[in-house]
Amino acid sequence: xxxxxxxxxxxxxxxxxxxxxxxxxxxxxxxxxxxxxxxxxxxxxxxxxxxxxxxxxxxxxxxxxxxxxxxxxxxxxxxxxxxxxxxxxxxxxxxxxxxxxxxxxxxxxxxxxxxxxxxxxxxxxxxxxxxxxxxxxxxxxxxxxxxxxxxxxxxxxxxxxxxxxxxxxxxxxxxxxxxxxxxxxxxxxxxxxx
Length: 194
Fold this sequence. Notes:
alpha+beta; transmembrane helix; three-stranded antiparallel beta sheet; two-stranded antiparallel ribbon; transmembrane
């Protein structure tokens, strides 16, 4: 028995400075509300978990491959297509403006280009007609990797100098030779894709 009393005395000494246990209706109500709130939080988390898992599953679910509509007939490989860039540039990397600049720099003194018309474009055979300020026109042509220039206001050597400047600019841009239109079909080549 002495041992029981020693154990009780030791326990009493340990809990001597502990606050008294709460008692009364207020304390019981506070503990009940905390317990209820914890239960609501756990139940809410349990209810929200499947909803979040479903949202993630829908977000990462692979979508089906797009299917072609059977309402439109497939495009025929022989159908002619019109290139919206055809005629606006000779080839990728050598636009109309570069050709005009090369020609303008190579013209002899006293011969200048007039104001360019809005509808200026490369022709199907690779030629370009440029108006001259004194009247008349200058025709330059790039075909099969060679260039030519002709105008009544230019001598043979001056026309050769203009053609050489055009070919130099053409090659510097890395542009391939242009193919003329096919005379049997009248089809214009896809100049922008060359």
